[in-house]
Design goal:
two-stranded antiparallel ribbon
């Protein structure tokens, strides 16, 4: 292969500086006819095939509806881009899970179940006769710092790489104080 042309194979970056790329590499299989026509369209627009595919995907986000509020005002992925994207993976995950849980894949559903059931990452209160920690699963109740701190553990437990006992703990019941002890 001559210099200046990228290899057809995907390789891992050799240096740390290479691993901080501005874009992600995605391998895509295309029907030969579709690839040929995409190459021609890219030429017409004076783009590389890669640049053309990126542009086509970005353009399609303005047409694919993420939700239907009304037939007159569809809400597309382009409309929701800023509310769904975040540079931090845990934040991005939580935004998706809180707003569009139906778009979670199986592994993400497993992670979300663990997050929803873990009182450490939610603002709440001790209530009921047993004074147990209770919370609502809402964006305003999520403790983002706690989710970020324990993100890898949630992910590892959901994948089966760590046991459930590795999950973060919280005080599930309010400790009772004996009124007879003087302070």
């Amino acid at each position: 292969m001559s210099e200046g042309f990228p290899s057809a194979r995907i390789r891992k970056p050799a240096r740390a500086s290479e691993s901080k790329r501005k874009s992600e590499v995605v391998t895509v299989r295309l029907d030969p006819k579709l690839k040929y026509l995409a190459e021609l369209a890219a030429r017409r627009l004076r783009r590389t095939l890669s640049s053309y595919i990126e542009w086509a995907i970005e353009d399609s986000l303005s047409h694919v509806q993420v939700e239907v509020v009304s037939s007159e005002f569809p809400v597309t992925f382009a409309d929701k881009a800023s509310s769904l994207w975040d540079v931090d993976e845990p934040d991005r995950f939580a935004k998706l899970a809180l707003n569009y849980p139906d778009l979670l894949d199986h592994e993400e559903q497993r992670i979300w179940k663990l997050v929803k059931e873990n009182g450490l990452v939610w603002r709440g209160s001790y209530s009921g006769p047993g004074k147990e920690w209770t919370w609502e699963v809402r964006e305003s109740k999520l403790i983002w710092d706690h989710l970020r701190e324990h993100w890898e553990t949630f992910r590892d437990v959901a994948r089966g790489d760590k046991p459930p006992s590795a999950l973060p703990n919280w005080q599930k019941k309010l400790a009772k104080f004996d009124d007879d002890i003087p302070f």
